[in-house]
Amino acid sequence: MTKSLLRILYSSKTHQRLSEIDLTKLLQQSRQNNWQIQIHGILCYNHSDFIQVLEGPETAVIKLYQKILDDDRHYDCKLINICLSNKYIFNDWSMGYIDISQGNMRRLRQELPEKLSSDNADKFAFQLKHYLNSPSQKNADQTLFI
Length: 146
Ligand SMILES: Cc1cc2nc3c(=O)[nH]c(=O)nc-3n(C[C@H](O)[C@H](O)[C@H](O)COP(=O)(O)O)c2cc1C
Known about the structure:
Alpha-Beta Plaits
């Protein structure tokens, strides 16, 4: 099967904690834009660090990532994995959101390596999806991150 989608996983930092209003604006803007260009994914934030997965048509993802790299709401973007894929993981979400300061998600940023193999990056993305889809997000305590 042709792998026509591109998926990237990156982390970055914020200079200062984003307000609820600024975070909501960022999510609204992302969801509106992503919907139009068939991009899906998830954004995790813990008051000082972002982790984001973006997936979609190759050119659209690259163009968006270039815009994101230039965004002064964050800095120190580190590309953890980039891979081709034949299906969306976050097909139900134009941009899902997890507050990673909750539960054992807090450990995530410290434990996430600078680079992941594509298999492990996919595994990690599925774990985030599982967390996102659990109604009370209590399952985070049973989630084992790589
Ligand atoms: C951590 C982070 C994640 C972002 N994620 C997205 C995204 O998924 N989609 C998006 O369109 N913009 C995202 N942005 C915003 C872009 O950097 C940029 O401001 C936006 O795409 C510009 O939209 P416009 O062309 O409609 O003005 C993100 C910004 C930050 C700081």
